[in-house]
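Holo prediction — cytidine-5'-triphosphate.
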Amino acid sequence: MLKGKHIVLGISGGIAAYKSAYLLRLLIKKGAEVQVVITPNGKEFITPATLAALSGKPVVSDFFTANTGEWHSHVDLGLWADLMVIAPATACTIGKMAHGIADNMLITTYLSAKEPVMIAPAMDLDMWKHPSTQDNITLLKRRGNIIIEPKSGELASGLVGKGRMEEPDKIVEAIESFFAKSQSLRDKKILITAGPTYENIDPVRFIGNYSSGKMGFAIAEECAVRGGQVTLITGPVALTTPQYENIKRIKVISAKEMHAACMENFTHNDIIILAAAVADYAPDYVAEKKIKREGVEDMVIHLVKNPDIAATLGSRKLSGQIMVGFALETDNELENALKKLNKKNLDWIVLNSLRDAEAGFMKDTNKITMISSHGQLIPFDLKSKRTVAKDIIDTILTQK
Ligand code: CTP
């Protein structure tokens, strides 16, 4: 499972550092290549000789080797590694990571890390509970670091409570599941449309719909967690962009703008997921000034067809590209979804029915059926949109 994976194991100075030797041994047994980086305090708890013997590599601790002057490049380590795991991470190391206090090799390596970072905290229960530690943990989580929660139990101080570093075999499980998930979209580019489009009538009015964008945003987050490069093209929604470096958001208002943004971006993407509720029609004329009601008894707005983004992209689909559309139907669900799948030349269509309570617009849950151009029809239970996003990505990656 971990064969060929490059892992930087960061060890800071806590009693739990003795467990890092077990962790290192397990990682090596699973086939990973591990480079240990240890803090000066870490060396008080476990010797570099033990760690070097287990990893088969000299341990990095100082910025350079004193007698030779050889420089240890934290930047190179960042480029080499697929994952950095800091176990144990003491309150002090967590604080330095959160605030960029680069006074040792572990922190400089962390600050140069291009790879994802997992943190297994270990400390006394009061230190763990302290608002300062908790704020630092929240900050690191928000920046995309993965926290392996400490466990409750007997602590080095003799006290009992939360603060024990997770056991090495469980940390390995977390590492394996991380690779299983994130690998699947590494080096992949994904274009996602989300939310409604607004079609202006005059400077203060528009034609829109109830789409919240939640489903498209959940898919964007799922793709980002798996390591994909996401371009998220959104109509007007109230949602904030999920905080991942690998999500680029492009904001548009109208169907025409969304169409243009998709055309500009779609060729270099591997997977295209069209979750936006695009307005099918727009007023043929947008009044320059607010339309006044005085003297107007009947109002007729002439609408013209908007471009069908899915159909346009479908007709230009490149070999190897996977294209996924959505169909929100109120009746003849399956028949209508199949028609759209074929007409728009999609590989998959995700059907949700407005007849299912708790599915569709503005809800946090959804109930979908996935239909493929190869005839698969896979129903799913009612789930949170975040879990539905996982199902969608798992399905398109694993079902051919
Ligand atoms: N879609 C699109 N551009 C449009 C209309 C729809 O890209 N102008 C996409 C949607 O994002 C969705 C799929 O096509 O992935 C189906 O959208 P839907 O509105 O259900 O289908 P329509 O073709 O508009 O058909 P109708 O509204 O008549 O049901």
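READOUT: The pocket of cytidine-5'-triphosphate is lined by residues 193, 255, 274, 276, 278, 280, 306, 308-310, 325-328, 340, 344 (CB under 6 Å).
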